[in-house]
Amino acid sequence: CFVMALRGASLVAGLASVAAFFKYTGLQAESDVFAATAPTSPPSGQIPPSEIMRYGLPSSDNLRYRMGYVMSYNNKHKTANWVCEVLTKERNSQNNADRKLCEFVVDDTVHPFFRSLNSDYKGTGFDRGHLANAANQRWSQAAMNDTFFLSNMSPQVGKGFNRDIWNRLEQWVRTLPGEYGVVSVCTGPLFIPVVEHGKAYMKYEVIGASQVAVPTHFFKVVLCETAGRAPEIMAFIMPNQVVPDTVPITDFLVPLENVEKAAGFLLFERLPDRYKCVKRDSNGRLMIAGKAK
After folding, report:
1. CA 131, CA 255: separation in Å to the nearest integer?
2. Does the annotation mark 130 as catalytic?
3. 48 and 58 in contact (C-beta within 8 Å)?
4. What percent of the chain has pLDDT over 70?
5. Around Cβ 34, how many Cβ atoms within 10 Å?
6. 3-state SS of the chain?
7. φ and ψ of 88, to 5 deg
């Protein structure tokens, strides 16, 4: 009976936490739980979380809402489960922030047991890799500052990945609002098993005293929308390793469901016929919009 009561109390607490988030953002906690409604009283200048998450939360654990993005944090891995942003042509055209004024800071909204620290990365050879990209938030210095919380970082191979092909992917994403107008972006780490001797094993490095998990892969999924056109989805999975400069980002295109199966949650779940929105050519092959290297 004690165990059942404890489970019941835990469930009530969990539901209360989700309800508090919905109340803050203005999202309804009933059947239209992810409907796009105006937040009650967001901080001045913040992109309403209901705008960012209008097609649903991938998951509801350890949510953080920043000036320009929403994230779910993983206490065990000391990095995010996912980070979601919305880019628009108007915001992308602004340049009101200077990266030189930003500093990597510990996220004190995370319990001390589960935080990552700057010292965790020192001497490891890994970059503090942004999930919500700093350059996506040039419309506001406060929004760019928010991307430097360590909770928004994951250990990424530097030369050959974070500073190269991953950067190329991020730059390509920033070109899309010019063509579509509104682009939703969801980014996160993946931990994909390796197969050895016919058996699958989950293996990944951890760094620093906090034991920050080093993802084996990263995903990025973009949803492009413009009036009068069907939405288009493009999904990528990239290995967290050195990738030659000659490899195009199109080599890492995958079906949306591949990301969802590896990540353990659904993306843009409230978008009707979302799998039919995955961008393909006339032969059914995955393709991207615009030009990319």
Report:
1. 21
2. yes
3. no
4. 84
5. 16
6. CHHHHHHHHHHHHHHHHHHHHHHHHCCCCCCCCCCCCCCCCCCCCCCCHHHHCCCCCCCCCCEEECCCEEEEEECCCCEEEEEEEEEEHHHHCCCCCCHHHCCCECCCCCCHHHCCCHHHHCCCCEEEEECCCHHHHCCCHHHHHHCCEHHHEEEEEHHHHHCCHHHHHHHHHHHHHHHHCEEEEEEEEECCCEEECCEEECCCCEECCCCEECCCEEEEEEEEECCCCCCEEEEEEEECCCCCCCCCHHHHEECHHHHHHHHCCCCCCCCCCHHHHECECCCCCECCCCCCC
7. -125, 160
Question: What tokens appear for 136 in the block?
Answer: 């996506």
| Distances 35 to 22, 50, 52, 72, 125 between C-alpha atoms, Å | 10, 8, 11, 19, 42
pLDDT tens sequence for the chain (293 residues): 544 444 454 444 444 544 554 444 444 443 333 333 333 334 568 999 999 999 999 999 999 999 999 999 999 999 999 999 999 999 999 999 999 999 999 999 999 999 999 999 999 999 999 999 999 999 999 999 999 999 999 999 999 999 999 999 999 999 999 999 999 999 999 999 999 999 999 999 999 999 999 999 999 999 999 999 999 999 999 999 999 999 999 999 999 999 999 999 999 999 999 999 999 999 999 999 877 66
pTM of the model: 0.84
Question: What pLDDT is attached to residue 73?
Answer: 98
Choose the catalytic residue: 77, 130, 197, 217.
Answer: 130
Q: Cα–chain-centroid distance for residue 55?
A: 14
**Contact 84/290 with Cβ under 8 angstroms?**
no
Our measurement of the distance from residue 17's CA atom to the centroid of its chain's CA atoms, rounded to an integer in Å, reads 21
- Distance between CA atoms of 48 and 42, rounded to whole angstroms? 7
237 in Cβ contact with 254 (< 8 Å): yes
